[in-house]
């Protein structure tokens, strides 16, 4: 079995790499986007070592740039603190506001010079490390690890391949191919459980999760150790995060050429944006891969865990300190106040009173919130407080009243919408009888040709919630279904190229298939009934004619490819199964579900115009056909296979589709793809016709049924 690599098509222009020739520069830190582009180019050439070298370096350099910028800004902030005495001013002179302003801006200029010099010395020219939004998105999605897992697998470095795959999957839990790869890795010899690690894990979060794990196991001493490290690392990460917020102004929809605010409004706009970013650090640091939402009340929860861990370790002084710290965030928490009273009684009230809470974080955060609320009230600059613990009086009363009124309005609207939905449901129920009667006299609008009486148009595009879609029943008989199913099994036993192999789409299923040409050749060799091969072609041709007629095509519809396929569930591989039998895809373009796009270029079969599936049985579990949106997640319609049923549709991006997992039994169908371009007509059909004519003395003895 081979791993499948569902990588997005990435086209980037590599920037020229300029070297830093400044005297203080000891080395040149290569630009991240240049390294990334080089690695991607090497990937498509199969140069795996170059992929690894450049992609690993890109990850390291990106981390280095982030670290250096944070360190420079923190270091310069310490060197040019605004609370220091301003040089040359001495005692403040009454009425000398302009002089004080000059002193303030002296500090601003000094800090700017400090940061610029520090970053230039350590990183080189600032323009070298400006990464495009597209490349930044790839790193946010952890795409480099997708490339790395392939490259490491190719050179048989399984431990590194597993770590890269696991790291990518944590940030992309809906990526079905990577999930299957990880399942495959678990079965490989030499792969250890410890290889499944998150290479992007942040220290504070890793320690917090370890602390929770020990806490759950009642190992309170170890839990406290890890929670303490997590707190220290959180404060370090918070400082770095806030320092990195002090970057360029994001115009956020403004045309910067038209932005004409004065000096102080410009400063206000930028500083409010910086403060908003700094407040959001609390959310960013509470996020971990594998969770849809950040941890609630993240920092205060550390002290909740700590106070109980210390209590169980009989370390009452530390328990009191952590309980008091938690109460800084939630002073009215009844349980914690009871805990504090108990700890104080055990230790002694006098001694307990001498123990202080840890306050280094709250004061700065509250001041930031007050400034942001002032900006909200005075300038209308929106601020949404990310914390649950913010004291009520930090928000101005006018805003509190407005927020209360907004909540009441939202609740009223929600109630009204609920009542309206109930009324709509009642109307729908009342109209069901009428609509069921009307459906009997509705005629297909997508095709003007009347189909044979024994073929029923069960659902059209509207009922299937899309366009260029149709569901037909009664296309073939039960006997014909059984004969084609027997043909598939017989062809598989005689060597169809798939026997004994897992499905190319799911490791939990077996796959067998046969083309028309293969069936006829096996028939000529006496390995399968020749009449069954003839039936295969006849019924495929019947479906082709039906589509040509139903969709009212002005030109001939040609076969592009035909395949009789059976998928069988592997019983021992069905536990906790969440993959699809056939992942969601589009037949004539490359689906990039993350971007809701479909790229119509090779290696996609861009010449395909229509598709159809003729189902042969229903005695299995799972295996329903689904239509989805371009996100490959939102199901718009679902079709249950049964003998003689055909689902047909346009092969373009309007019809992403897939197959749910077959969890029991065998699912058989004839998959058919058609084209309007005769240049792409399936060559094997011509071979088939020639072969059939030769076998019948120059006369074709089996003709397609007329529709």
Automatic annotation (TrEMBL):
Domain Fe2OG dioxygenase: from-to ranges: 562-676
PROSITE patterns: FE2OG_OXY (PS51471)
Signal peptide: 1-19
Membrane-spanning intervals of the chain: none
Any matching Pfam family: TPR_leprecan
GO MF: iron ion binding; L-ascorbic acid binding; procollagen-proline 3-dioxygenase activity
Cofactor names: Fe cation; L-ascorbate
Enzyme class: oxidoreductase
Keywords linked to the UniProt accession: Dioxygenase, Endoplasmic reticulum, Glycoprotein, Iron, Metal-binding, Oxidoreductase, Repeat, Signal, TPR repeat, Vitamin C
EC number: 1.14.11.7
Any GO BP: collagen metabolic process
One of the record's GO cellular component terms: endoplasmic reticulum
PANTHER family the UniProt entry points to: LEPRECAN 1 (PTHR14049), PROLYL 3-HYDROXYLASE 1 (PTHR14049:SF5)
Entry similarity comment: Belongs to the leprecan family.
Protein name: procollagen-proline 3-dioxygenase
Organism for this UniProt entry: Sparus aurata (Gilthead sea bream)
Gene: P3H1
């Amino acid at each position: 079995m081979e791993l499948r690599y569902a990588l997005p098509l990435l086209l980037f222009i590599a920037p020229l790499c300029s070297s830093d020739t400044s005297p203080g520069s000891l080395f040149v830190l290569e630009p991240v986007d240049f390294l990334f582009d080089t690695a991607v180019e090497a990937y498509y050439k199969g140069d795996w070592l170059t992929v690894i070298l450049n992609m690993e370096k890109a990850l390291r350099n990106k981390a280095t740039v982030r670290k250096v910028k944070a360190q420079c800004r923190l270091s310069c902030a310490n060197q040019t603190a605004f609370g220091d005495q301003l040089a040359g001013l001495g005692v403040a002179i009454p009425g000398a506001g302009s002089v004080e302003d000059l002193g303030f801006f002296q500090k601003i200029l000094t800090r700017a010079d400090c940061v610029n010099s520090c970053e230039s010395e350590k990183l080189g020219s600032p323009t070298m490390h400006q990464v495009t939004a597209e490349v930044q998105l790839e790193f946010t999605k952890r795409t480099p690890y997708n490339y790395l897992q392939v490259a490491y697998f190719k050179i048989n470095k399984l431990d590194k391949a597993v770590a890269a795959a696991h790291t990518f999957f944590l940030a992309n839990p809906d990526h079905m191919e990577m999930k299957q790869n990880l399942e495959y890795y678990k079965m490989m010899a030499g792969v250890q459980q410890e290889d499944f690690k998150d290479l992007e894990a942040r220290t504070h979060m890793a320690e917090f999760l370890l602390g929770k794990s020990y806490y759950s196991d009642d190992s309170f001493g170890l839990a406290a150790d890890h929670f303490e490290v997590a707190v220290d690392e959180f404060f370090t990460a918070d400082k770095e995060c806030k320092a990195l917020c002090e970057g360029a102004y994001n115009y956020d929809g403004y045309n910067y050429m038209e932005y004409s605010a004065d000096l102080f409004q410009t400063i206000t706009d930028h500083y409010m944006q910086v403060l908003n970013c700094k407040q959001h650090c609390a959310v960013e640091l509470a996020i971990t891969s594998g969770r849809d939402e950040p941890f609630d009340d993240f920092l205060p929860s550390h002290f909740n865990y700590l106070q109980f861990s210390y209590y169980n370790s009989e370390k009452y002084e530390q328990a009191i300190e952590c309980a008091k710290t938690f109460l800084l965030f939630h002073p009215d928490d009844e349980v914690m106040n009871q805990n504090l009273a108990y700890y104080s009684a055990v230790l002694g009230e006098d001694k307990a009173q001498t123990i202080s809470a840890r306050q280094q974080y709250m004061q700065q955060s509250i001041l930031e919130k007050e400034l942001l609320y002032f900006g909200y009230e005075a300038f209308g600059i929106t601020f949404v407080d990310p914390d649950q613990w913010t004291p009520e009086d930090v928000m101005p009363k006018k805003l509190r009243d407005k927020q209360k009124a907004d909540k009441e309005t939202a609740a009223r609207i929600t109630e009204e919408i609920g009542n309206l939905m109930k009324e709509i449901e009642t109307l729908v129920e009342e109209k069901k009888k009428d609509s069921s009667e009307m459906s009997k006299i509705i005629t297909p609008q997508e095709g003007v040709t009347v189909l044979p009486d024994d073929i029923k148009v069960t659902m059209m595009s509207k009922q299937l919630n899309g366009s260029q879609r149709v569901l037909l029943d009664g296309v073939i008989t039960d006997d014909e279904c059984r004969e084609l199913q027997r043909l598939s099994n017989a062809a598989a036993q005689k060597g169809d190229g798939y026997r004994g192999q897992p499905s190319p789409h799911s490791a939990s299923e077996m796959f067998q298939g046969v083309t028309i040409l293969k069936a006829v050749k096996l028939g000529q060799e006496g390995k399968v009934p020749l009449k069954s091969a003839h039936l295969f072609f006849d019924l495929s041709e019947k479906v082709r004619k039906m589509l040509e007629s139903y969709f009212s095509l002005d030109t001939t519809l040609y076969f592009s490819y035909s395949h009789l396929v059976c998928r069988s569930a592997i019983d021992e591989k069905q536990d906790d199964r969440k993959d699809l039998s056939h992942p969601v895809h589009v037949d004539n373009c490359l689906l990039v579900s993350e971007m809701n796009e479909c790229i119509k270029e090779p290696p996609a079969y861009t010449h395909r115009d229509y598709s159809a599936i003729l189902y042969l049985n229903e005695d299995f579990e799972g295996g329903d056909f689904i239509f989805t949106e371009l996100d490959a997640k939102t199901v718009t319609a679902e079709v249950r296979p049964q003998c003689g049923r055909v689902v047909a549709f346009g092969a373009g991006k309007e019809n992403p589709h897939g197959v749910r997992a077959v969890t029991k039994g065998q699912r058989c169908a004839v998959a058919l793809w058609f084209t309007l371009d005769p240049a792409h007509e399936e060559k094997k059909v011509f071979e088939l016709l020639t072969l059939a004519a030769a076998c019948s003395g120059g006369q074709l003895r089996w003709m397609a049924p007329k529709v």
